[in-house]
Amino acid sequence: MKPSYLIPFIGLFALISCEKPKADDPDITKLYGNYELSNINWHGTSVDLNNDGSGYWNLLYEFQNKLGYYEPDYTAVVQPGIVYSHTEPYANYSTSFNVTIPYPHYTMVDGKWKCLEIKSLKTTIRATDNSIRLHVNCCHIFPGFNDPDDPFLSSIQDVSLVVDSYDDNKFKIGVHCTLPFDFNEEQTLNENYLYYEFIKE
Length: 201
Description:
This protein is mainly β. 13% of the residues lie in helices and 46% in strands.
C-alpha cells in the first residue's frame, strides 16, 4: 500500500496549479499611481469646440480654451479595488481606475448645437484578470445617462479602458459618444470615440 500522506500534497498541488491569477498581479500593479490628463483625441469627423470655424481631432487645446475647463481637476488614481458580481456570492480583486475627465456641454443656439462650457465627469473603471485586454477597448461600463436637457451627455453609450503596455506609465479612457460636425452651413451628428490619455506623474 502506498503511503496515504501523498494524497493531501497531490490535492494541494492541484489547487495551486488551477488557481487563476488575480488582477493585482505584478504586471497590473505597475500601473498603480497618480496620473494627469495629457491629451484628448476624437476619432470621428473633425470637431469645432471653440467655434472658430476650424475643426480638429486633437482637442486638448480646444478644451483648454472653454469656460469650465479646470486643469487641476483632470487627474486619475489607479489603485487596488474590488468588484462585486451579480451572479456570484463573493467579490473579486480588481484594479480601479478612478478618473475625472472634461466633457463638452452643448446648447442649442440659433438652430445649431454650440459648446458653451466644459463639464467634469467622474467615474471608476474596474479591471479584473477576466476583463482587461491589452491594445483594445476593454472593461466597459454603460452609464445610461438620461438628461433631456443635455442630449450629448445622454448619448454616451459606454466608457472603456485602453492599456497598450503595463510599462508605458500611461493609459486611455475611451468615451463612445456623439458630437456635432459643422460643414459650411450644415451640422450633422457624428458618433465615435473621444479618447482621454493619462500619463503618470
